[in-house]
Design a protein that fits this description.
The chain has 176 residues and is mainly β. It has one domain: Acid Proteases (Cathepsin D, subunit A, domain 1, Beta Barrel). It is 12% helix and 48% strand. The chain has 3 helices and 12 strands; from the N terminus they run E-E-E-E-E-E-E-E-E-E-E-H-E-H-H. A hairpin with a 2-residue loop joins strand 5 and strand 6. The longest helix has 12 residues. It is globular, with a radius of gyration of 16 Å.
């Protein structure tokens, strides 16, 4: 029996939404206090494909910047009432998509909402990073550094520069 290598992650990481064909890494906050994951979705439109509910929305990978925005579509797997950090409850569409974090790839359910006032476009909740059957996350590092890039011996700046060349990113990386 081969033991799966468990992922060690920091409180923030760069995640790629590979299932939505969004190649630009997006800064995500890893939040074990939140049960579910949330994705910033602007210009949200509901429509149907073969009688099934779908959503079309804009992914804006960079906080406070309009560059790199992508229009994407995904099937709606559920609608859930979610209580945000300010205590307000709202009904949100939920999609499932594949994400990439370091060399790991797995599916995550995201509720779609406007996260304009938040510092991160993605909130990755504990259900997405820990599963008894999958053993997703071995350790969460309470660090300001990106643990995945740090573990591979690549600084955050080097990782960002590689991503810039690979995906033609324009904003400058700031580690704060």
């Amino acid at each position: 029996m081969t033991r799966q290598r468990l992922l060690v992650i920091g409180w923030r990481e760069w995640i790629t939404l590979s299932g939505l064909e969004c190649p630009t890494p997006i800064k995500a906050k890893i939040d074990t206090g939140a049960a579910t994951s949330a994705l910033h979705a602007s210009k949200l439109e509901h429509f149907e494909v073969d009688g099934q509910p779908w959503v079309r929305f804009t992914v804006r990978p960079h906080q406070r910047r309009t560059g790199g925005a992508m229009r994407v579509e995904a099937p709606v797997i559920d609608e859930r009432r979610v209580r945000s950090s300010n205590g307000k409850s709202e009904l949100r569409p939920v999609i499932e998509t594949e994400i990439s974090l370091g060399e790991q790839v797995w599916n995550v359910e995201f509720s779609l909402t406007r996260r304009n006032a938040m510092g991160f476009r993605i909130l990755l909740g504990r259900r997405s990073i820990a599963s008894p059957s999958r053993g997703r996350c071995q350790q969460l590092l309470p660090s300001r550094r990106n643990a995945v890039t740090q573990r591979r011996g690549v600084s955050g700046l080097e990782f960002r520069e590689r991503a810039r060349h690979q995906r033609a990113l324009s904003p400058r990386y700031r580690d704060h």
